[in-house]
Amino acid sequence: MSEQPRTVRVAILGAGTVGSQVIRLIHERSADLSERCGAQLEISAVVVRNVHAPRDVDIDPELLTTDAAEAIDHADIVIELIGGIEPAREYVLRALNGGATVVTGNKALLAAHGPELYEAAAQADTDLYFEAAVAGAVPVVYGLRESLAGDKISRIVGIVNGTTNFILDSMLNAHASYEQALADAQKRGYAEADPTADVEGYDAAAKCALLASLAFHSRVSMNDVSVEGISQITADDMMEAARTNHVIKLLAVGERCLDDLGNEVINARVHPALVPTGHPLATVDGVYNAVIIEGESAGRLMFYGQGAGGAPTASAVLSDLVAGASHRVHGGHAPRESTYAHLPIIEQGMTRTRYQLRLRVHDDLGVLADVASVFARHGVSIHSVDQRDGEPGAQTTIVIATHCAREADVLAVAEALRQSDAVIDVASLLRMEGE
Amino acid sequence: MSEQPRTVRVAILGAGTVGSQVIRLIHERSADLSERCGAQLEISAVVVRNVHAPRDVDIDPELLTTDAAEAIDHADIVIELIGGIEPAREYVLRALNGGATVVTGNKALLAAHGPELYEAAAQADTDLYFEAAVAGAVPVVYGLRESLAGDKISRIVGIVNGTTNFILDSMLNAHASYEQALADAQKRGYAEADPTADVEGYDAAAKCALLASLAFHSRVSMNDVSVEGISQITADDMMEAARTNHVIKLLAVGERCLDDLGNEVINARVHPALVPTGHPLATVDGVYNAVIIEGESAGRLMFYGQGAGGAPTASAVLSDLVAGASHRVHGGHAPRESTYAHLPIIEQGMTRTRYQLRLRVHDDLGVLADVASVFARHGVSIHSVDQRDGEPGAQTTIVIATHCAREADVLAVAEALRQSDAVIDVASLLRMEGE
């Protein structure tokens, strides 16, 4: 039943950290890959900005070109690793429109223009793969598109940005300030000179949009994800979290939930959260990523591994390459965009989570009663209160954990507390994950 | 580009814990599954031993039948959930030979007759799926067959048997003896009346064979896996493990390693092992399963989730069902058996791991020197020695951890120690996992 091995021509756009590893591995594993695809993979072109730039891997100079169009038009499979929106979008569309299979690791492109790209792939009856776009080597895209295709996903929650995870780790372990930890991450090459996309949560939000789309069979774009980064997290927050046996992690969350009318809606968000130290996500450190997927039948699954770096990301690219090549040889295709559920996005402010508020208050008799009445007035139920011993007449700290409450209500509570005479300030307001 | 939904007829063999969940979910998720497959799934028959037996779910009495052949011959997809070798093998072969897609959760059948079944599937150009055969809802089969198809797997290590994991947990947490813990597991329905397959490691070995075959693109059968169960583990062993910050877990391990001539060989084994409490596998408790896959490029990935139970296993079956139905509608096929690497199995005794030996010795001067000389004589290098304070002249305990050593050499050391006058007995001999 074995087919005559044919040749599949692969054009690689970009020869940076990931691209150079992909090129190296296609050469090194040539025999293995050919057995697994049923086809010989031949790198037909490597598109770069400057063919004379120094490279980490040996690339046959004949393959190097700046002519993307030519390279794309003569390839069966195009691997896009240049990142950013343009010209990546133009190249990917050109490839798909021409019937080539596309493998990309470009989360920003997908989160912004996914539907257009999926549509082009479907029109040309070809495949669009993007395992490398989320969580590096961790196969969450396969997990959602295929391994859990028979389940009803209720929730995904994960750590999908290594840069912020590294910074939060440093703040926790080295008691560094946010600024020190960021500078250290930049020095080590874990954060970019302009760290905005990472630290403000946009990178995680793009991944969150992709995962939520897959999980809930609906279109979720970057704009549908509410985003809060880590730049407001202080060394104090980390220390206070530790006091209550929590760590702070930047989480990407996608939930299927019910609105006030009982209709299913999607809630997708990225924000720092207090995670109990015993929670599986609490121990995910450094540049590791982890995603928990909760299926109605499967229960809680966790996928864990390296979320970035040349080799791990190249591993994801190569798997997509094998799948894409196999489909070209044996027929069939990758799962197409699946949006049949058409779930709407939850209204702003309606998301329900648990919160922890840390208040500095005057240590007077009756302060707790005043504070508690603010919560009651806004319909926010208190789960626990931890009042620190203070000198009478001086200031003290109250840490209040709420039950699940609407975001809008909790923000109103915080605002009312800030206005209250009893309260000096709201030192922190953080969401809580886990029980 | 959407196809006219067609009907895919599904015959289910077995309506037990998993089968009844599968039937329920096919009904409940009918609309979703049809969107995801591009086909309406129709249960065409449910094959049982006794059509009048009481059932957990409502099944249309018209579908219930004892006529497996008739049911198989009229189905597009056959889901085999009866377990055991015969008649499961006969039914699966009949289905494959007739061109039906087969979804099975039968690890024993696959570990014993996998090549024959794969061959039948290839001959008839149809698909054989078995995600449910390993680790319940945890998608390790997808992980190895697809998500890591582009990587070179160096090692897999996992906890893949919930029964033994539950028993070991009870021994650790409730300080129960093995016999008490087993009886408790049986009472709760986690262990069978005849627990041999679980506690002696055969169930884990079947899964180990499947995972190693997929990981190393070679045939690994049940007989290629060296197996040691947990029935020899004592409450003492658990307590002693805790003293050195370890837990004891039953591990399934598959490794690509080099033999003395430098040739790649496969080493597949199931045995209890000491796992450091900080290791990701140490905290996998109860009926959860976890598998770590180490890829040359991906690095260390972990998959974690519920390893057994009706609903989680049904989730895996349904994913395979969606994949199988999609292929029938859209063309293409699942990955076929991949054995091109043809790696041989390591020779017995040549496996290299770290060991911990716990010796009861006479607390005399020079005992440690005697003991150490036995290790040296057999070429086993000692990593650490922990000698307990004892009354001079009385007996004491020495705990010795080795560096990586050949199994045959360590067994020879243990035998020599038992013969030695200085040593009262070798109280335990356990492999060590992790750093």
From TrEMBL, chains A, B:
Gene3D superfamilies reported in the protein's UniProt record: 3.30.70.260, Dihydrodipicolinate Reductase, domain 2, NAD(P)-binding Rossmann-like Domain
Cofactor: a metal cation
Annotated keywords: Amino-acid biosynthesis, Methionine biosynthesis, NADP, Oxidoreductase, Sodium, Threonine biosynthesis
UniProt keyword Oxidoreductase, yes or no: yes
PROSITE patterns given in the database record: ACT, HOMOSER_DHGENASE
Metabolic or biological pathway: Amino-acid biosynthesis; L-threonine biosynthesis; L-threonine from L-aspartate: step 3/5; Amino-acid biosynthesis; L-methionine biosynthesis via de novo pathway; L-homoserine from L-aspartate: step 3/3
Catalytic reaction equation(s): L-homoserine + NAD(+) = L-aspartate 4-semialdehyde + NADH + H(+); L-homoserine + NADP(+) = L-aspartate 4-semialdehyde + NADPH + H(+)
Domain named ACT: residues: 356-431
Top-level taxon of origin: Bacteria
Short name of one Pfam family: ACT
Enzyme Commission code(s) on record: 1.1.1.3
UniProt record similarity statement: Belongs to the homoserine dehydrogenase family.
PANTHER family linked: HOMOSERINE DEHYDROGENASE (PTHR43331)
Annotated function: Catalyzes the conversion of L-aspartate-beta-semialdehyde (L-Asa) to L-homoserine (L-Hse), the third step in the biosynthesis of threonine and methionine from aspartate.
Protein name: Homoserine dehydrogenase
